[in-house]
Amino acid sequence: SNLKLDIMKNLIFFCIVIITISCNSNVKPTPKMPGAYFMISQTINDGKKDTKLTDLKQLKIYTGDMMMYTQVNPSDSVSGFGLGSYSADTGTVIENVIYSAADTTINTPRSYNLNITTSPEGYTQVIPEILVGTQKSKLTEEYQAVGKAQTTPLDGVWRETDFYIVKGTDTTRSQRTQYKAFYAGYFMYGHTLKDSANKTFTGVGFGTFEMNGKDKIKEIDLNSTYSIAVGQSFNIGVEISDADHYKQTIVSTTDGSKSVEFYERVKK
Fold first, then answer.
1. What is the tens place of the pLDDT at every residue in 155-188?
2. Residue 255: exposed, middle, or buried by beta-carbon count in 10 A (0-12, 13-18, 19+)?
3. Are β-strands 170-173 and 156-167 bridged in parallel, bridged antiparallel, or unpaired?
4. Cα–Cα distance between 94 and 175 in angstroms, integer?
5. 96 and 108 in contact (C-beta within 8 Å)?
6. Radius of gyration of the chain (CA)
7. pLDDT, position 245
8. Core-most of 49, 160, 186, 193, by most CB within 10 Å?
9. What is the dihedral of CA 248, 250, 251, 255, to 10 degrees?
10. DSSP 3-state assignment of 229?
11. In this structure, are residues 179 and 190 in contact, taking their beta carbons and an 8 Å threshold?
12. Is the pLDDT assigned to residue 4 strictly greater than 60?
């Protein structure tokens, strides 16, 4: 009887181990998101069919607790961007977007629950229900990791607090809302402003960057709303006053005018 009891105990223990292993194997790990990623496809399912898009140019950056994305459609230069904080849990990322815009529309703040599947090449995100126009749809996006193993004092998401152009003795200030992000050797910016017809206009740009010493960076624009900037490199003077503030200056090689921008770090 003692032998039977021991066998039963061993069987119960064995079953518990198997169940535990099975349960643990079904739990998705918490994704580690910091990095820079290019979107390689976007698939919209309206409940009837899949529509796959591969022409959109989008870069997404995750820092330790912030994220930003910029997107441009090369066919018509219609652009969009968004930024906010995020948190990661088992197989999911929750993004709290504090500012986003697309074309002529500035959106209200919103949150998104993303189902994340990571791979050595990047990750796939799924939003089960999202409004595309007026239609509730499932949105799937595939991303390829492109970030480099580097860190700089500029890594993070920044909000522009002042911007002006100096040309000779004239100083012209511009009213715009602009954000910028740096991480893993990539940068991006997105802004909204009023055009000459007083309509909201969205502009973006993104590419690679490197720091040359403590007071210079070189940006290479890979994609932008402004076609004249694509493929161009820009040498930018930088003054980092503290961990949360910096100033950048670009001197035009054509007329010597200076574009001066001040930034403050965006925190969660």
1. 999 999 999 999 999 999 988 999 999 999 999 9
2. exposed
3. antiparallel
4. 32
5. no
6. 23
7. 98
8. 186
9. -130
10. helix
11. yes
12. no
Strand 122-132 with 135-145, pairing: antiparallel
d(CA 106, CA 228): 25
Q: What tokens appear for 11 in the block?
A: 């069987």
pLDDT at 174: 83
Tokens of 137: 């749809």
Query: What mean pLDDT, rounded, does the chain reach?
Result: 89
Lookup: tokens for 243: 């961990």
Q: Is the dihedral of CA 173, 248, 207, 132 positive or negative?
A: negative
DSSP three-state, residue 13? helix
- Tokens, residue 155: 């890594």
Residue type, 240: I
12's enclosing H/E stretch is helix 2-25
**pLDDT: is 66 or 227 the higher one?**
66
Question: For residue 13, is pLDDT > 90?
Answer: no
Q: Which residue has the higher pLDDT, 148 or 38?
A: 38
Strands (E), 103-215: 105-107, 110-119, 122-132, 135-145, 156-167, 170-173, 176-183, 186-194, 200-211
Quickly count: other Cβ atoms within 10 Å of residue 149's Cβ: 7
CA distance linking residue 229 with residue 187, whole number of Å? 14
pLDDT, tens only, 198-226: 899 999 999 999 999 999 999 999 999 99
**Three-state DSSP class for residue 228:** helix
pTM across the whole model: 0.87
Q: State mean pLDDT over 1-22.
A: 48
Of 130, 141, 107, give the one whose Cα is nearest residue 37: 141
Residues in the chain: 268
pLDDT of residue 8: 52
